[in-house]
Amino acid sequence: MPAIERAAAVAFAGEPAIDPARTRSEADYARLIRRGHSLVAHVGETMVGFLVAQPFSRELHIWEMDVAPAYQRRRIGAGLVRAAMIDARNTGFKALTLTTFRDLAWNGPFYARLGFEEVTALDAHPRLAGELANEVEDGLPADRRCAMICFLD
């Protein structure tokens, strides 16, 4: 998973706040996987993408979703997100959440096409407000980051 994350981070090469070499460790991924809401995509025997999420009360938060560059633009990422929606709905979650860049086509607009909305009332979502604050503290640009939510039927 870290190798796919590193490879996918190349798309952020022009973003000064993103260090493609700084990824989650295998141990970090193992902790998220043990929570039971992680998905992988394979083409043949090769893992080409993944999504890791963590439960927070009645919401499932997507921490990371990456697809290897050679397999991007094939709807694999959209398939992972849709599978996470099914998983979340089937296990009783009311919404999926995430934080992302609002202005990059493969971030905010991508998730909006899948039914996510930007959370504008962050006072009603203190967990997401806190996550955005942590990201800004880590050097990400506050004006370009947003929290998004997709309510499940």
Describe the protein in words.
It is a single chain. With about 150 residues, the chain is α+β, with helices and mostly antiparallel strands. The model has no long low-confidence stretch (mean pLDDT about 90). A six-stranded mixed β-sheet has the order 1-2-3-4-6-5, sandwiched between helices. The chain is built from five helices and six strands. It has helices at about 1-10, 25-35, 75-90, 110-115, 125-135, and strands spanning about 40-45, 45-55, 60-65, 95-100, 115-120, 145-150.
Task: Please specify the SSE layout and strand pairing.
Elements: H1 2-8, H2 26-34, E1 38-43, E2 46-56, E3 59-67, H3 76-90, E4 95-101, H4 108-113, E5 117-118, H5 126-137, E6 145-151
Parallel strand pairs: 3-4
Antiparallel strand pairs: 1-2, 2-3, 4-6, 5-6
Keywords for this entry:
single chain; alpha+beta; six-stranded mixed beta sheet; 6 strands; globular
Q: In brief, what are we looking at here?
A:
By secondary structure, this protein is α+β, with helices and mostly antiparallel strands. 32% of the residues lie in helices and 27% in strands.
